Model the fold of this input.
Amino acid sequence: MLQTKPIGLFDSGVGGTSIWKEIHALLPYENTLYLADSKHAPYGTKSEDEIIALSIKNTEFLIKRKCKMIVVACNTATTNAISILREKFDVPIIGIEPAIKPAALQTKTGSIGILATKGTLSSALFHKAAAEFTKDISVVEIIGEGLVPLIENGKLNTPELTALLFKYTKPMVAASVDYLVLGCSHYPYLIPKLLTILPDNITIIDSGAAVARQTKSLLEKNDLLNISESKPELEFLTNSDTATLSKLLEEYKANITIRLGDF
Ligand code: DGL
Done:
């Protein structure tokens, strides 16, 4: 039965688990297969062609494993490759993009900040959304260079990471932003540290919960929702070390499997 097949997710590494957590919380009976392409992280510094090729490789793998839907749990892959993936593959595909629209609609200071990868900020899809939603406000775009490798290596509580966050948020604070959009699925893991750094009037937003709601509605629309209430199979594959993945998924460890995979 198609409904019991897994939802396939991929990211350049461990970051998309922040999206998986939202999806699993909303859809706790869905089987899932997550690919952490950590061997090729970061995607954010790669060319558009490289990002497209990696996204196709990951999607092909997930489709071979019979996934009923694909969630591109990576802003960089979404903004550079999603239209090509949708042309090429015949399954519903959901992506994640920086949540500029809600930030632009809610800002009171007329100034918002966006932290994302170079690949996302330079993409045509991001420029199109920015042009549409941020015409009347000012936007401070900052490339979070170096953040993804630190998160991939489990270095969340290091002086090096804190220093980078101070450096990247300083121009935003100076520009009186009241919203900080996290435009990379790795970055929700930075929220505890960002909260200690940012002034209280800055609200952080990411797209994880919205992607989970969209996943649910697309499953419903395509009659793909798993109605069985049995314990789901929650599989995580990485083509690098399992250590960081295990650490970020610690609270789920009794119910998931994490393995090395060749993809
Ligand atoms: N997690 C990714 C994103 O959402 C990719 C970051 C990277 O690999 O550079 O953009």
Q: What stands out?
A: The radius of gyration is 18 Å. The domain at 100-207 is CATH 3.40.50.1860 (Rossmann fold). The beta strands are 7-11, 32-36, 69-72, 93-95, 111-116, 138-143, 179-183, 203-205, 234-238, 256-260. Residues 116 and 144 are 6 Å apart (CA to CA).
